[in-house]
Each structure stands twice: as structure tokens, then as C-alpha cells.
């Protein structure tokens, strides 16, 4: 059995309106939930209908304003674009993806609409669904909502007072139309398998429960015996596939395997995708180090978090699946819906997480499929860096969609061995320490200003993270050293100590690896740009050499037009260079 999700008063009203338009018996009555809208900008001065275009800025602005109004209204609403108020069918040629993303941009990236096309009497119309907003969405500085069949302005205080009545609204926690007895046995068994794999006594005890009790304790069923939307997704599924997995050996290569099958529980889809990813996630054997025995190209927990986050936090009102492209040793997960709850690429590690689908997120966590919200991203970043990989790239792309990319280059065994030497041992588990060490190895130095965006912390917290790393040691030698030559009163900067750098080079040689260290010229350019100056003493302090050994580097950068001397004679105490541009 499979079900269609999103059945609510708005969807029911959309279907009623479309039937009335199709039969031609529209009676000019308006609905508080659905509004007919002719595409703006389609008529000339004489009132003649002009040919439709895929992109129409005036129409996008009109739809954005109306959609913001509907989203601010409890329960949201929908527009039928391409029909006039009297039921006449004009049609529209607007491109769906363009319109969805343009409305998102016009509403300051606050509103993600669902758009689908329908054909009524051989005329293409668009159904634009605006989900209920979590925070008031302003359009041209105003907050409006629907009163009867009109959009009226409302002050934010009144909006919030109304919204407080519906606090903690969560679509995934709402009752579905599906009885708990419809849960698929295959999905139930996979849920038990996830629990048994966790191995903890409470999980094993939960896995042993009869199905009704299991669903109840997972909060997947209501008191009336209906599955929640989260439970229906997980244990029954929908007609459309929730996941679309594609495997290619090389970029641009032929698809080797594909998993896209609806009509089954999301847990079944998830288990199937995990199995296929594991089959193509090669195992590498390590002789020793932080990770003993063997590792995979991509850390298994990071893979799980990326895939599950692409399901738990996505917009489920959109029919398209969460896509997973597994190309070589790169995994890219793209999910419908933009960032949510104030999260973006610049704060995703540290921002308090708010899921669109809290009940679904908690269901996955209860089944031990992935971490609870707010922890999984930390885990992904940490696990990738510990193996010497680049941190996950999590970005918002047009649609809007959220894309998470895990790039599994060959495990950096020298780096892994080096981390194993750190003391105290928990340093190699500290995400902030790992991010700082990665920055130091890649860029040569760090200060509070450059580290803060990397750690996604404020300056006070960043200074604390640097101070903690300063207390760490490696083979009884400090890991960090304070850069010398910085003028009094200027912010401090740090580099790897000479001993720490030498020990990493030893680890690389033992593994017959060749690390690509940043060039001295590159370090000098980056430092000067970031801090507005550089002297031979500062560069020497970063590199752990004598100032006389680096003065020629700075002169060469001046000759290349990268640096400018602070004094024409280039001499004297306190002489330094500044960026040329």
C-alpha cells in the first residue's frame, strides 16, 4: 500500500476548484484557501492577451506577494495561476523551477513554494502552494494575511499572538489518513534491524516489542490508531520515491546502478540505498594510527548523516525525491527546500537546529539511524577531517535545494598517524581543534579573525578554542607557537610549532607520502592580505626560520607587484610591507 501525502484542506480545495474549472460551472465564488490569478503582465493596453513567456518578472513579483500573504495565513493556501476570477482560462507558460526560485529570492529567501502544472480544458495552469510560515514573511516591508478572500496588512505582534496558538506545529507529527495496521512488515523489520544494530540494551528491548507497541513507543501512531505523517512516510511510503540513488564510477560516466522505487516505506528505501552506497564505498586498510584496522573512502557515519538529513529536513510538500549522486568517491545529496530556521552555510555547524519535520527527525534518531538534530553536521565534519578529507560542503542551490557534498579523497594516513600523537587524546575528537589544525596545515597560520568563520563561532569563543589548542602537545612539544614580530597592540597569530611540523613530516615519510604544503610566497600573500601588513620577522615566525632567510621572498613579492614597502628606504626597525592592492 502507498499513500499520497499533503492531503489537507488546502489540497482538497485545490482539487475542488480545478474540477469546477474543468466542468465550466465556476460561479465566481472566492475561497479563503485558494485564489485564481491571471498571470500578471500578459495583456496589452487594449486588454488583449499576449503570448506567454517562460520567465515573467512582473508575474513572479505578483505571485511572490500573494504567496507571502497565503503563507502568513494559518494553514497556508494556494494560487491557481492562469485563470481569471470569473473562471476564464488564459493559461501560463511560466517555467516551474525559475518561478519557485524567483519567489524565494523576492521574499528574501524566506518562502519556498511548491509549484506544479495541471491541464484544464487543454490549458496549462500552475498550482502554487504556499506552506504556512514559521516566522512572518514580509513583502515590500509589510506583513499581510488572508481575511476571508482578501489579503490585509497585520502588525507582527498580532501575527505572533495568533501564531502562538499554533506553536510547535509540525507537519510530520500530524495524523495521516493511514491506520497503523497498514504499516508494511518489511519496514517494521528494517526498523527492528536498525535498533538491534545499535546494540544498547534499551534499543534491543524496543526491537523485541510487538508492532503496535513498537509504533507507539516510536511516537509514530496517534491515540486514534492512525500513523502520523512521519510514521506513514517511514512505514508505508508514498507513491513517488523518496530517494533517488545514482551510481557512476567517473564524472560523466554511465549510470552503473540506480535505486528509485516508490510504493514502499521510507525505511525500506533508506536501507536499500545504504546497502548500495556501502557496496561502492571501498575499504582501505591502515597499518596503525588513530583509526586502526580499516576505514572506508567515506566515513560511514558521515554518509548516514548526509542521507538522513536530506530526508529529515527536506520540504515534503514537493513531490520530487531526495537525490543521491555517488560518483567515484564523492557523494552528493540534494534535497528539496532551502535552508530552514535561520541556518545557512556560514553557521550550519553551530546554529541551533530547527527541523521542518521534527517528528520525522526524532523518529530517525529513535531508530538510531542518525544523530539527533544539531549533532549530525558536527559528526560529518569531524569524521571527514579526521581522515584527512575536506570538510563537507553544505550549500543552498537554486530550486531552492540544499546540497551536501562529501569528497572522499584517499585517506591521509600521515595525518591520521599525526593526530594519534596529540595529547590529551581528546584533542583529536575536538571538532574545533581539528578545524584549526586543518587550517594551520593548509594556510600556515591562523588568528582569531580568520579562524572565527571557519569554526563558525564568535571571536570570544574562537579565542577560547585557540587557547585550548595551545595547551595541547605532541611528543611533549607544544602544537602551536605564537608568531613573533607582531607589533605590540596588534592581534596575535599562531602557527604550527617547529616540532609539530617536523613530526607531521616524519609521519608522511613513514607512509611514503608527499604533503602539499603551502608555499612561502602563498603564506606571505595570504597573511598580508588578511592582516594588512607583513614583516620578515612575522613570516620567519610562521615558518620557524631566521628572518634573514625570508627577506628575499618579500622583496620578490614586491617586485611582482603583490606587496608595497612601508618606507622607501626599506630599512630600519619596524619596517614592514603592506598589500599592493
Keywords:
581 residues; alpha+beta; Methyltransferase, Cobalt-precorrin-4 Transmethylase, Domain 2; Heat Shock Protein 90; 4 domains; 6-stranded mixed β-sheet; 4-stranded mixed β-sheet; globular
Notes on the structure:
With 581 residues, the chain is of the alpha+beta class. It has four domains: 9-169, Schlafen, AAA domain (Methyltransferase, Cobalt-precorrin-4 Transmethylase, Domain 2); 173-235, no CATH class; 243-356 and 363-407, Heat Shock Protein 90 (2-Layer Sandwich); 423-579, Arc Repressor Mutant, subunit A. Helices cover 37% and strands 18% of the residues. It has 20 helices and 24 strands. The protein has a six-stranded mixed beta sheet with strand order 10-9-13-14-16-15, covered by helices on one side. A four-stranded mixed beta sheet has the order 1-2-4-3, with helices on both faces. α5 (185-198) runs antiparallel to α6 and α10 runs antiparallel to α12 (376-386). The longest helix has 16 residues, at 57-72. It is globular and about 90 Å long. The model has no long low-confidence stretch (mean pLDDT 88).
Amino acid at each position: 500500500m502507498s499513500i499520497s501525502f499533503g492531503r489537507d484542506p488546502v489540497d482538497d480545495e485545490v482539487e475542488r476548484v480545478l474540477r469546477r474549472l474543468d466542468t465550466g460551472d465556476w460561479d465566481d465564488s472566492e475561497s479563503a484557501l485558494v485564489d485564481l490569478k491571471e498571470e500578471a503582465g500578459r495583456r496589452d493596453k487594449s486588454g488583449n492577451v499576449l503570448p506567454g513567456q517562460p520567465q515573467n518578472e512582473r508575474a513572479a513579483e505578483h505571485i511572490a506577494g500573494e504567496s507571502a500573504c497565503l503563507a502568513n495565513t494559518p494553514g497556508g493556501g494556494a494560487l491557481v495561476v492562469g485563470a481569471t476570477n470569473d473562471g476564464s482560462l488564459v493559461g501560463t507558460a511560466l517555467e516551474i523551477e525559475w518561478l519557485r526560485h524567483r519567489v524565494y529570492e523576492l521574499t528574501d529567501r524566506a518562502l519556498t513554494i511548491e509549484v506544479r502544472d495541471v491541464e484544464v480544458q487543454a490549458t496549462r495552469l500552475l498550482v502554487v502552494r504556499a506552506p504556512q510560515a514559521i516566522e512572518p514573511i514580509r513583502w515590500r516591508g509589510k506583513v499581510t494575511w488572508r481575511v476571508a478572500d482578501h489579503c490585509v496588512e497585520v502588525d507582527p505582534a498580532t501575527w505572533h499572538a495568533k501564531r502562538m496558538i499554533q506553536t510547535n506545529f509540525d507537519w510530520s507529527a500530524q495524523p495521516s489518513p493511514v491506520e497503523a495496521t497498514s504499516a508494511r512488515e518489511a519496514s517494521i523489520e528494517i526498523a527492528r534491524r536498525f535498533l538491534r544494530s545499535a546494540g544498547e540494551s534499551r534499543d534491543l528491548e524496543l526491537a523485541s516489542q510487538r508492532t503496535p507497541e513498537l509504533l507507539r513507543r516510536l511516537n509514530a501512531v496517534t491515540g486514534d490508531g492512525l500513523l502520523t505523517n512521519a510514521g506513514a512516510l517511514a512505514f508505508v511510503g508514498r507513491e513517488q520515491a523518496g530517494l533517488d540513488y545514482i551510481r557512476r564510477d567517473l564524472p560523466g560516466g554511465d549510470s552503473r546502478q540506480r535505486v528509485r522505487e516508490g510504493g514502499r516505506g521510507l525505511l525500506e528505501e533508506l536501507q536499500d540505498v545504504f546497502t548500495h552506497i556501502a557496496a561502492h564505498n571501498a575499504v582501505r586498510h591502515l597499518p596503525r594510527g588513530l583509526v586502526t584496522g580499516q576505514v572506508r573512502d567515506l566515513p560511514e557515519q558521515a554518509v548516514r548523516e548526509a542521507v538522513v538529513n536530506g530526508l529529515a529536513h527536506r520540504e515534503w510538500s514537493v513531490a520530487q525525491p531526495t537525490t543521491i549522486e555517488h560518483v567515484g568517491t564523492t557523494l552528493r545529496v540534494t534535497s528539496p527546500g532551502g535552508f530552514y530556521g535561520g541556518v545557512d552555510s556560514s553557521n550550519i555547524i553551530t546554529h541551533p537546529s530547527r527541523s521542518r519535520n521534527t517528528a520525522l527527525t526524532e523518529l530517525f534518531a529513535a531508530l538510531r539511524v542518525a544523530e539527533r538534530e544539531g549533532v549530525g553536521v558536527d559528526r560529518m565534519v569531524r569524521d571527514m577531517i579526521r581522515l584527512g578529507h575536506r570538510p563537507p560542503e553544505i550549500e543552498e542551490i537554486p530550486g531552492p535545494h540544499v546540497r551536501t557534498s562529501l569528497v572522499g579523497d584517499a585517506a591521509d594516513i600521515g595525518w591520521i598517524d599525526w593526530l594519534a600523537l596529540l595529547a590529551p587524546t581528546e584533542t583529536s575528537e575536538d571538532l574545533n581543534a581539528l578545524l584549526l589544525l586543518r587550517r594551520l596545515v593548509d594556510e600556515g597560520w591562523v588568528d582569531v579573525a580568520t579562524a572565527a568563520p571557519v569554526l563558525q563561532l564568535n571571536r570570544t569563543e574562537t579565542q577560547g578554542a585557540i587557547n585550548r589548542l595551545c595547551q595541547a602537545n605532541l611528543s611533549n612539544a607544544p602544537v602551536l607557537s605564537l608568531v613573533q614580530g607582531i607589533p605590540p597592540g596588534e592581534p596575535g597569530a599562531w602557527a604550527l610549532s617547529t616540532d609539530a611540523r617536523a613530526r607531521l613530516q616524519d609521519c608522511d615519510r613513514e607512509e611514503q607520502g608527499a604533503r602539499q604544503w603551502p608555499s612561502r610566497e602563498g603564506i606571505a600573500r595570504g597573511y598580508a592580505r588578511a592582516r594588512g601588513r607583513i614583516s620578515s620577522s612575522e613570516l620567519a615566525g610562521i615558518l620557524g626560520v631566521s628572518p634573514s632567510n625570508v627577506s628575499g621572498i618579500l622583496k620578490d613579492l614586491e617586485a611582482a607587484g603583490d606587496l608595497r614597502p612601508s618606507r622607501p628606504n626599506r630599512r630600519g626597525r619596524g619596517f614592514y610591507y603592506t598589500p599592493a592592492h
